[in-house]
Design brief:
Layout lengths: L2 H50 L5 H12 L6 H26 L5 H15 L2 H10 L4 H14 L6 H4 L12
Helix pairs in contact: 1-3, 2-3, 2-5, 3-4
Amino acid sequence: MDWQAIGAIGEILGAVAVVISLAYLARQIRTNTKTIKTDAMQKAVEDRGSIAAIVFQKDLAYVWRVGLNDYESLLDDEKTQFNSILLTMISSHMGLRGLHEDGSLDEGTFSIYENDLACVMLCPGAMKWWNDVKHAYLQWGGYIDGLLSRWEGAKAPYTESFPFLKMDPSASA
């Protein structure tokens, strides 16, 4: 065998090694991307779970119920708590929205979360809160405003859907 044949075989083996390396790298990238998306979904679901856990804390359940109905009647510290609850909910939702937009979260699952957010944001107190703070959250403004305008009248706010969240306007807090 002459040196040209050995060189040609070396080039072929090198090319095969490059193809195998690229295939392995592509597989690793896909696996890593899937892991990142799964972690992001898990974080968003955990955030939503922490919001649901407010029912276990009487003072936060009160802040949630009153805030959804009449944000202005909350004391400053309670407004801070209500603000944190809603910001966590919106931030979590925006993470889910990103997963939905890149195809990692199916339409049916995303619509459940979007429906939940809409029903919260359509509550009178949440709408008042949003109008007061949206200037500070411009990255979410168009989406939340669009959600409110798209679903207003089409979805019932939670204060209408769940009697235990509704407050008698004549009752004092």
